[in-house]
């Protein structure tokens, strides 16, 4: 890649149990990102719904290719002329008692360009907070990446992941991407300890950009998420960060020449022996 640039917005939200309210909030933030020159906007995990209980995901579940949440993403991408990575939304699973936690990417023409179903499901219990995604979510089985054609003609290989995937570096090696997306809803407890170090590590070891939008704040269901949405460069430098809780954007312009230069200077990806 040479002289390629891509403006990216990591969108931070504090989603509610009401899908329509969340779509309206996402619409406002995506419009803001487009007005500020973004070509790619990435929504956080569960952008469309932070339910009060696991069953809320089932009630909002959609069949792949059909449903109001997907229609919103497609229409908004087309109206704004924007690539949109739709955080995650609940899609129908093989097990009717569960859903897939799926990240869908829509191109500026409104077409769905990629789908990734979250592979690694979060479980945490410190005696005060308890989470077990497997109760309501069916895991995916395969990595996913797509090619983003930028306005300047540049081609970016973009790898998809979601939240807890961040703790499994082998997934990111398989993606072999220029840009890694990590839409998340990290808890305040785990985010405070591990969010930024893990994101910077994935960027450094893969010599890739990382865009990580997050839920950030106190939700109506009582859950508190860490936020601190950010964009990291291939050297591990934080380029942009949403430092406060609450909705907003972390925006940065990715430089394809810097990426190529760093990979030439430190060809670690070519030195893998195992």
From TrEMBL:
Any single Pfam family the record assigns to this protein: CN_hydrolase
UniProt-recorded Gene Ontology molecular function terms: hydrolase activity, acting on carbon-nitrogen (but not peptide) bonds, in linear amides
CDD domains: nit (cd07572)
Cross-referenced InterPro entries: C-N_Hydrolase, C-N_Hydrolase_sf, Nit1/2_C-N_Hydrolase
Record's keyword terms, sorted: Hydrolase
Keyword Hydrolase attached: yes
Residue span, CN hydrolase domain: 6-256
Highest taxon, organism lineage: Bacteria
SUPFAM superfamilies: Carbon-nitrogen hydrolase (SSF56317)
Protein name, as recorded: CN hydrolase domain-containing protein
